[in-house]
Structure formats: structure tokens, C-alpha cells
Amino acid sequence: MFKSINPATGEAFAEHSEHSAHEVEARIAKAAETYRHWRTTSYDERTALLAKIADAFEGDTQRLAEMATREMGKTLKSAVAEVEKCVSGFRYYAEHGPALLADTEIEMASGRAVARWLPMGVVLAIMPWNFPYWQVVRFLAPAIMAGNVGLLKHASLTQGCAQLIEEMVAKAGAPEGLFQNLAIPSSKVEPVLADPRIVAVTLTGSEGAGIKVAEAAGRELKKVVLELGGSDPFIVMPSADVAKAAEVAVTARTQNAGQSCICAKRMIVHADVYDDFVAGFEKGMRELAIGDPMAEGTAMGPLSSEEARGTVLEQVEEATREGARLLVGAEKIDQPGAWMSAGVLVDVPPEGKFAKEEIFGPVAMVFKAEDIDAAIRLANDVPFGLGSSVWTNDPQEQERFARDIEAGMTAVNAMLASVPEAPFGGVKRSGHGRELGPWGLHEFMNLKAVMLPKSDKSGPAGD
């Protein structure tokens, strides 16, 4: 049994039954059966369905958003924005999908060939609670366009959101079995992954979860995409608008209560502007509006659970033991629920254990860099390589950061965010593979070479 617990109050408001082994088998069987038909559908059929799913999400935005806020604590405003992003994701693939899957003609001395994108089968998605809709849509929209079928193992915290996604897809008229939620705990994922009817797996989650899934997928020789943790640098150089950078840094560190893989977690600031940045950043973090996530003016709600808050507070204690200084916040707020204040740590020893960790909560580490070389060294001196944000108006510095920061993504003079059109993913221990854009569409597809006689000018019929 899964419980939906409102982290703003600590009270359970719903229960969800776990699927039995028989129910899981029935859902896998239905997915495999549906794939045999769905793989043969035209691009027009797929894009029409994607557009209808987008309409379903758009028409139920408020209900979807309120469920996310109640289950994991994000502000209602940010939950609405998440649903709106899902709508844009479905519509992106509905509009651009056919062109992204067009055949590529290959001329050869011995004849010619066509490179064609074909679906693979049933894809298992293991998704987290922090963006309970958008994380799923990042896999689901391209899966539908590709001609694949999806099974979702969602986080235990957000089973209400999982059920609503299933409802939206069904409401749009999708074939039964095209998308189904598996209400199972993490301990029961491995047998599902091993099932021969599952052809690939995508996971967004912790480094530990990624290792387990990659090992299991490797034993079965199945394709896997991993989007794991990050400790993203937010670098500020003297040529930047420092006041603006400090203002954006507050949002970049505390969006979703700091519970985002691409939150800016390490502020790396040039010595010449360090004091000005820290003053502005500290003020913004101190004045952050923390409160009822349903209220209009709230900037940050609670963390997702008391357990998550406990982990962050333990990390802050570890940092201070290593020599870091707590400048502001990072304290438990004494009321029911998973509340804490936003915090800033300075004088963090770069060589310490804590400096290499990811803090999945609203606490920032601030480092001072003497020059661009030192900033890049600090940025890369962690096991992760997901995203990064750099603030400089010097074109040469912008190019240097883009080239030398070890990350899958770099935003210049802006907070990093995912968008449907651009590739999303990391390097190092932040995972491998890409979501979104044409790259996310192609990850779980068979790129088939169709060899044709040189005299044959017609070739196989494209979609």
C-alpha cells in the first residue's frame, strides 16, 4: 500500500494499492500486445494522439497541479508551470515528430540505402517524485511518436500523479495498454526489467538507483538512459551583472525547494565580485517567502518528506564539521510537515568530502575563485556533470566555459532549465543518454539500414 502524504502538514490524504504479481504480468502482456499494433500506425495517427493528450493535460491543469502540490510540496504556481511544460512537450513532438523521423537517403558505389528510424517495443520508465509529470512526459511523448509503448514505475510518493497521467492518456483516446502505471516498490523492479518483453529502460533518479538499474539492464543487454544526480556550478565573473546573477541564483538554488537535479548547487564566484554577490545572495535567501505552497505569493514550500529534510540537515552538520560556515538559514522550521529555511554555506573546504556531494534541498555552497582557470577547476572537481550556469559578458570567457566545463548542459547568463527542443542529460556520474529534442526521440529506436539495388529508384514506402 502506498500513501500520499502532504509534506506541508505531514498528514496522509490518500492510499493506493500495490499491484500484485498477477496484475503486473497482465499489464506487461497488454503492453506487448498493444505494441504489435501501435508500431504499424502512421505518423498522422501518432501526432493526432499526442495533440489530444496535450489537450487533456491543458484542460485539467488545475487538478493536475493541485495533486502535485499536495503529494510532494511544490508551490502551486510551479506545479501549474510544470503541467504547461508537459503540454508544450506533447505538442513539440506532435508538430516536429514526422520530420525528425524522416528517412535519410544514402548514396553508395554499389547501390543505395535508406536509413530509417523504427520503434523498438515496450520501454520501462523509472521516474522520481520531484517533477512528477514532466519527468514522465520527457519519456512518454517521444515514446508515443516513435511507435513504442510505455510502462511507468513512478515514485511511491506520487502515485496520485501517476494515476492522473494514466487517466489523461486514456481520456485522449489512446489504445488500451499504450501507457500504464506499475504501482510497485523499487524492490520489485528488477524482475520487470528482466522480462524479455521489456526492450529498454530509462531512469531519472539517484546515482545509487542508476547503478542498480544499469547493472540489471547490462545483464539483459538492454538499452538504458540514465539521468542521475548533479551538483551544478553557478559561476559568476566580473563582467557579469552581479546583482542580477545574485537574484537569479536564489531561484536557481531554491526552485522546487532545491529538489531538482539541475538546481544550481555550488556558487563559484570570482574574487573581484565575491563580496557583492554574497551580500545580494544572502539577502535573497534570507527574505525568501516560505509558506503554504497553495498560496499565490509563496516562493518555496516544504521539502518532499521529513526524511528528505533530515538528510539535508545532516549534510549541513557534516559541512560545518569540515570547516564550512553557515551564513544563513538551513534550519528546521518547527511546525508539522517537512519545512526548513533556505541556507548558505561559505568557506567550504574544496577538498572536503562534503564539497563533492549533491545537496538535494535549499542549501547552497559558495566558493571563491581567483580567475577563470580556478573557476573551471572547481566546477569540474566533482563526480557529477549534469548542468551548469555561467555569468559573464565576455565572449571569450563564454566560449571557454562552454568548451571546458564537464557537463551535458551550460546556460549563459541564465538559469538552466529543460526545454522540449534541446537535449537534456549529463556526463560522468550524472548518467548517459539524452532526453528531449530529436535526440530523446531517437534513443529508443532502431536505426535500420535498408539496402537497395542501384537501379531501384522507388525504395520502400516511407510514412
TrEMBL record:
Q: Which residues form the Aldehyde dehydrogenase domain?
A: 2-450
Native species of this protein?
Answer: Sphingomonas floccifaciens
Keyword Ribonucleoprotein, does the record have it? no
Q: What is this protein called?
A: NAD-dependent succinate-semialdehyde dehydrogenase
Region (Disordered) location: 1-20
SUPFAM superfamilies recorded: ALDH-like
Q: Which Gene3D superfamilies match?
A: Aldehyde Dehydrogenase, Chain A, domain 1, Aldehyde Dehydrogenase, Chain A, domain 2
Q: Does the keyword Oxidoreductase apply?
A: yes
Keyword set for this entry?
NADP, Oxidoreductase
